Structures
1.
Amino acid sequence: MASFTLHGIPVSRGIAIGRSHLLAPAAMDVKHYLIGETEVEAEVQRLQNAVAKVRTELQTIRSDLPKESPPELGAFVDVHLLILSDPMLAEMSLDIIRNRHYNAEWALVTQIDELSAQFDEIEDTYLRERKMDVLQVGERLLKVLTGTATRLPEVDSDGASFANIVVVAYDISPADMLQFRDRAFAGFVTDLGGQNSHTAIVARSLDIPAAVGMNHASKLIKQDDWIIIDGDAGVVIVDPAPMILKQYRELQAHQLRARRKLGKIKKTRAVTLDGTEISLLANIELPSDCASAMESGANGVGLFRSEFLFMGRIGPQHELPTEDEQFESYRQAVVAMKGRPVTIRTLDVGADKPLSAEEQTALNPALGLRAIRYCLAEPQLFLTQLRAILRASAFGTVKLLIPMLAHAFEIDQTLAIIEQAKQQLRDEGIGFDESIKIGAMIEIPAAALALPMFIKRMDFLSIGTNDLIQYTLAIDRVDHEVAHLYNPLHPAVLFLLSTVIAMGRKAGIPVSVCGEMAGDVKFTRLLLGMGLLEFSMHPAQLLAVKQEILNSDLDDLTLQTKKILRSTEPSAIAAAVSQMRATA
Ligand code: PEP
Ligand code: MG
């Protein structure tokens, strides 16, 4: 067969090479038939048995999870258990059997369709992607009802051969993903999924090359096809020509060698050739990520995306984490970082927490009641979080980071609520760091362009390049149709970035970058040349960035960067930036 290439969304870096193993989805086009009155109870029982069986299946997966597995995995199984217990799925399907006399499969699929339609209405991408969890639980139930066998490959060898298998699927449930860890597959490709999909999150935490959102990959790829996944580019090459395969094998070996080599600089301080020390910080999503942050030698946590503690709180009650629960999570992170600073960003969610489809009013959630806007509209929830963060500050160095600020009054209101939280704790005799540093994310162009407003009021700044680029270039960062317009090297983006870094330095206020740009070695030297001294990134990227820093000369980079910033021609900028890497 002729070779062909598919393009999707890169979610986990690295190269995987192997033969494809296709996972057939459980068919949703089940048999539809009406049952007689006397058969209703038996049909109800059949569905109830399936629910019980799936519950046992999921509970077994949950309890068999090894201790060292990423915490997200357990949380995902919990979400599936919650969905299974949700009356909206099982109870409503049982009602359909009783009232409409549909057979169990038909009733279930009808109810799943109804729930899917409700999820489609949700604006928030993260929540909308949770529709997949409902479908996955539905699939599991259908498989039990229809007696479909387990779908994962059964290679009965010592397990080594899994390393040559790339799993290709329409979608993979988090529960099935667990078997990736056990069986060490080479990588995976799915038709569905986005940056925030569970499968993507799990792939990153397992460090397995993966590409998702490949549309029809599972139909185009045949069983046992040779496949290359370029996880960095989100590209899948099917049946590659021998020359291409050879090139990728070399690249893969090179990447492996480079990774091993990097391990040697774990304990080395990130100092440039001219002696400037750079602070390398970790971005984390859960307190347990602190282990990899410490392991990578991070100087602290530059971004704790606290919203991950609130996510997965899907379910009938929509119970958000309490102050105590949050405090415990923040404290855990602070203790795990052993005295290194932990920058906790306050809740960055959309208008749709706690998630209810009816509450969806935002036409454009990226421009809607997001992050600090949401928190200021929900002061009680905000106060609870602030109290929890402040309480954790008694256990180490905590910094407070506020997302999406654009207006002076937002800063002032935020500072007032922080003061209110402090006062409450004082009154209650609860300890916290009185001089806790408070910083702003600079991720809206207006904030970057009106920086003195922030410098006057804040202790530090952190540039969120992901959003800064989204808002500067007016492209939705989760919309794949405009993904090609997402360009960190656009002259407008570079202007904003360099201006914020320069103005911050001039005013003597610390500035870091915590968006994806900070962890991308292609941009390390450019950012150094702009005068950036603090980089915050996923721990897995930290050593490669450090390597760049160790070989950089700031004087030289500053000159080169000045030239780049004068250029208005995108192709010239791109060429000059890659030249920086080649020569510095
Ligand atoms: C950013 O916008 O660059 C950022 C770091 O925040 P998030 O990606 O969580 O929006
Ligand atoms: Mg952001």
2.
Amino acid sequence: MNTYQLNNKNLTLFKDQVAIPQYNRAEVKTGIVHVGIGGFHRAHQALYTDDLLHQEGNNDWGICGVALLKFDQKIYNTLKEQDGLYTLVVKELDGTLSKRIIGSMVETLFAPENPSKVIEKMASDEVKIITLTITEGGYNYNEATSEFDADNPQILQDIANPLNPITIFGYLTQALKLRKERGLDGITIQSCDNIQGNGHMTQKMLLSYVKMAEPTLVGWIENNVSFPNSMVDRITPATTQNDVEELTKTSGIDDAWPVVCEPFKQWVIEDNFVAGRPAWENVGAQFAKDVVPYEKMKLSLLNAGHSVLGILGALIGYNTIDEVVHNKNIATFLKNYMDKEVTSTLGTLEGVDLEVYKQSLIERFGNINIKDQIDRICSESSAKIPIFILPTVNTQLKNKANIKHAAFVLAAWAVYSLGKNEKGTDLNIKDALKTTLHQKAIAAQQNSTLFLEIETVFGDLRKNDVFVQAFANAYDNIVKKGVEKCVIDINQSI
Ligand code: CS2
């Protein structure tokens, strides 16, 4: 089979192999600037938007994809070479692959190369929405103080060099300042990250920054910018070299960075857009008055479930999430965690059958075609755990209810942070707090609860005797008996 590079010029050559955009990309205007063009955005929002562009009358809603960090150079170069085009490969439950080329990213920018271009784009009249996938850690939130981390050196750097920012807060502030000076309409800033109340969080963190950097802008933002909350969902593992090669071999598409994902997708959005919005509801998104309960459900069950499987699985020596959930003992442990510790913290959710939802999660985790990497799941756990697991622990403690499973997983994380699995193989730990985690993990070998001193993660949990006791017991047991034996004991004690 002939192979061609994926770009505008070659696009129609692929039409017999895969689905390609049926709309004229040249006519699509940029109505959305999206920051963070990793796999998740490209499997989710960019796909919904591509679906919408196939319907009449939506040409104002193309996406300008922004790569914010120096680290993002590679994805930027790839998408630039490919005119923003990429292949989305859905790995269906029966193992077949549904492939299509997505065309909704009609522009791409690399912030470190040209910050003012990004600021200008965000400040342009045609742009009505700025969306974000900047990861849980990108919001500069300090768990210990529950406030914006004003001491972060990057934040101080942005305050000193407002025209050459490096953080999202520096960019947004300059862009909003220009919009105000130019007398432009308001704009929506929409987080698509896995954070409880992600819109509220964005608003709170941005306003904290603006109060320091550009205080006279605060009032304008309060009156002209909206921050809808949203719940986003689609499991999107990291693309492997195999995925790239499969695409070239079977479809003749030379795409340097396709995206692979599961069939399931969900997007629940609070309808709070000051400057208009795409009719994403016409392509499967749900608009709701209050999405906070949905976010909570997803973060506490799906994302936390991932962390449970990831941390326990990494220690035992598994590589992918499906392998772990097919271990019956671990699956039972996860089910008990969901049933006995999480469910009662969620309240009632209109129109959602939680039993069905939990069952569907076990099935999604078990999808053998997805092979979601444990390394991906465990990466940046120090930013994920406070959002995915600790709210459940805190609520349960307040209600004097069970925290056994959560304490066990956190103790396992302390052991994991030593850097080796139970077979003695090195773990590939990627975490902004890696050094601190490692130091505390070593200290924990003498006294396990020293691990809980990482305040930016655990807040003041170390002061709760019930939790500390459960954590210390779990830690000792894991060291003595290994994860799986402990899991069996816990399952039997239920
Ligand atoms: C995962 C998420 O990063 C993680 O730990 O739980 O990326 C998860 O796959 C997505 O949120 C699914 O919607």
